[in-house]
Amino acid sequence: MASVNRFIQFNNETINTKMLHQMEMLAGALADAPYLKVTTRQLIEFRPSESSVSVSVFWRHRPKQIERNGYLSDIYLLGAGYWRYFSIRAWAKFKKASTELPNLKEQLLLCAEEFRLIEKISKERPGTAEAFAVRESIYRDYHRDRYKQNKQKGFLADAFLNAAYLQLRGEEVPGSDGLRPLFFLWSGIFDAKSTRDCAIVVENMLPRLEYMLEEDMVHSYYTFGEAVESIPPFRYHEGIESEQRDQEEEIETIEEWFQSWHRETEISEAPAMEFELERGDSSYAEGGREEEGTGEIQQTAKGDSRGDHQEDNDAADRQTEKAAKQASGKFGSANDQVVYTEKRIQVQQDQRDNIEDWRRKQAPYVRALLRELKKRMTQRRQDVRHNLNAGRLSRNLLPLVIEERPKPFYRRTAPSKELDAVFCLLIDGSASMIDKLDETKQAVLLFHDVLRGLNVPHDIVMFYEDAYEASDAAQPNYFEWMHKLEDGNRDHAQEIVSMEAHEDNRDGFAIRWMTDRVNKRTEKHRFMLVFSDGEPSAYNYAENGVIDTANAVSEAKKQGIEVLHLFLSSEPTTEEQAAFYRMMYGNKSVSADSLEHFVEQTLRLLKRTLHLVIQSG
Questions:
Q1: For 334, which DSSP code?
Q2: What is the C-alpha separation between 121 and 125, in angstroms, rounded?
Q3: Helix axis angle, 156-168 relative to 102-124, nearest 10°?
Q4: Residue range 128-157: mean pLDDT, rounded
């Protein structure tokens, strides 16, 4: 996707990925469920089929302290309250009872449960008091305001819920004299110890409410999420005992509800094991590998290898391109259904004229940078080893007098002729790059020439997702190498100018894939550069894509890999765009104000990182 600007400006929301990641970690710890994900929706809710809970966007556009405490209160309620203390069985039974006011009935119970659980959590975990105090203060003001508006508009069921919320907090609303008998019944919530107790209170109120109110609620202030009926069916296989077939799994808490879905997901991700369990043959194996073949070579062949890379890598490259690989949990939960293929980019046509022209223009910059870097490498402070038996005589001759076996000599250690660093360049291959391909090729060619000149190993890879083939079952992704770490100093300019724009970009997955590759290297300094022209955009990879990318960057940094981002735009970068990329990449995100400045920014980025390598040694 090319830009973070949307046509509808008021819907131009950005996610605080760092805060959302913290909330996810907290929710997982409170619920003792590491697999739990946190998303944002209109109201807090549960989505076990996605292994996620949602915090409310109600807290957006507020002062930072209020926003943070509001999200924390949501997480406390979800992870430390509803998770273990809300009865699924009582909720399901409550929903089955017919009424003329189904929306009011359900929201009253959730309102009562919120009050009960806040009281319970505050006693068990005193540290939650501050967040809940902020929550109560903001929601009191909100329900006061909504009560007045609903009364004026004639939404009496909505106004009653607002009044009921305030009544539990000891606050009466104007014009509520006729509701006193109902509020007397409502006060039973103060003695409620369980979901069932709250349900009984609401059920006792319903006949009066149905008599007083002609219409159900219009707005939603509370929601539960997925229907409790959406429990995954128990999976039978041929070896199960007959009496076990008749037993249905009973689910009492939300924790058990999520666990049943989580188990189902794990089973569905292991088709080979499932096949062995359900279709395997119980007879003894015969023959096996020995009968399959004698091990003799039937036929050999040598194929054509495109590209100018080392012959030692030919077999590995052919094996890499042979079959797609399954991500299956290795590269983050947002990419579980990804199927990826690694291959060499195919050289389309001879473009030597373009390459020579670009190199002629870039030559002065490349030569100047290489000359400066090599000069810095030679002038670097040399390490000194003292107390040696041979070498240069030290100025400090005191050991000759005071020591029995003096060692007055020293030696200087010669500086390393090569930089102990590795660079990896990931290039966004999405369709929006089509009008920026020439500038991108020139920048990548500059990157390639500088690192070849310094004999620094480097990867150059373009990544993209096939949008036409992507589905819920599989999302095909491709990595096309222009230059591999194993290729040494070979010139792959032809491969670089052969890159083309494709469809979508799954940035977080690509960063995790490259992190896994770079972790196998032994160099002291490891850098990953990401060239992109917009936010992540792929199948089922929008808001969660931004979070996944931010998490991938954070994980790479923890493993000692410096991630740098260069944003390519044909227009000056707005403050909103800069803030968006800083949110994903931290302060290591820079932008080119125009296509003409892209090569210049690439040179500046390389210069800065290589100086850092030389200085630290």
A1: G
A2: 6
A3: 20
A4: 95
Residues 309 and 306: their CA atoms lie apart, in Å, by: 8
Question: Exposed/middle/buried for 464, CB within 10 Å: 0-12, 13-18, 19+?
Answer: buried
Q: Which residues of 47-74 are buried (b: 16+ CB within 10 A; e: fewer)?
A: bbebebbbbbebbeeeeeeebbbbbbbb
566 bridge partner residues: 531, 590
Write out pLDDT tens, residues 586-597. 888 888 766 677
CB 445 within 8 A of CB 493: yes
Question: Which candidate, 544, 530, 533, places its Cα nearest to that of 475?
Answer: 544
**CA-CA distances (angstroms) from residue 468 to 3, 166, 316, 557?**
21, 52, 29, 33
Alpha carbon distance 515, 268 (integer Å): 27
User: What pLDDT sits at residue 306?
Assistant: 42
Residue pair 53/76 in contact (Cβ under 8 Å)? The answer is: no
CA distance 326 to 451: 32
Spatial distance between the Cα atoms of 508 and 131, rounded to a whole number of angstroms: 32
**What is the SS3 assignment for 258?**
helix
Of 341, 339, 342, 340, the closest CA to residue 473 belongs to 339
Other C-beta atoms lying within 10 Å of the C-beta of residue 456 = 20
Q: H or E element: which one contains 615?
A: helix 598-616
Chain-centre distance for alpha carbon 370: 37
Q: How far apart are CA 470 and CA 502, in angstroms?
A: 13
Q: Dump pLDDT digits (tens) for 2-13.
A: 444 433 444 456
| Alpha-helix residue ranges (DSSP H) falling in 468-597 | 493-496, 507-518, 543-558, 575-585
Give the list of residues 6+ apart from residue 79 with CB closer than 8 angstroms, or none: 26, 27, 28, 29, 30, 31, 36, 53
Would you state the structure tokens that stand for residue 359, as one six-digit string? 């190199």
Q: Would you state the pLDDT for residue 465?
A: 95
Pairing of strands 392-393, 458-465: unpaired
- Using DSSP, state whether 460 is helix, strand or coil: strand
Long-range Cβ contacts of 110-115 (<8 Å, 24+ apart): 110/222, 110/223, 110/224, 111/161, 111/164, 111/165, 111/168, 111/221, 111/222, 112/168, 112/189, 112/192, 112/198, 112/201, 112/202, 113/82, 113/86, 113/195, 113/198, 114/77, 114/222, 115/168, 115/189
DSSP states of 1-25 as a string?
---S--SSGGG-----HHHHHHHHH
- The residue among 501, 554, 560, 576 whose CA lies nearest residue 531 is 501
Q: What is the distance between the alpha carbons of residues 253 and 88, in angstroms, rounded to a whole number?
A: 5
Helices and strands (H and E) in the chain: how many: 22, 14
Name the band, by pLDDT with cuts 50, 70 and 90, for residue 66.
very high
Residue 344 CA to residue 168 CA, distance in Å, equals 66
Cα separation, 41 vs 54, in Å, equals 6
Q: Residue type for 254, please?
A: I
Q: What is the DSSP letter of 78?
A: I
pLDDT tier, 383 (very low <50, low <70, confident <90, very high otherwise)? low
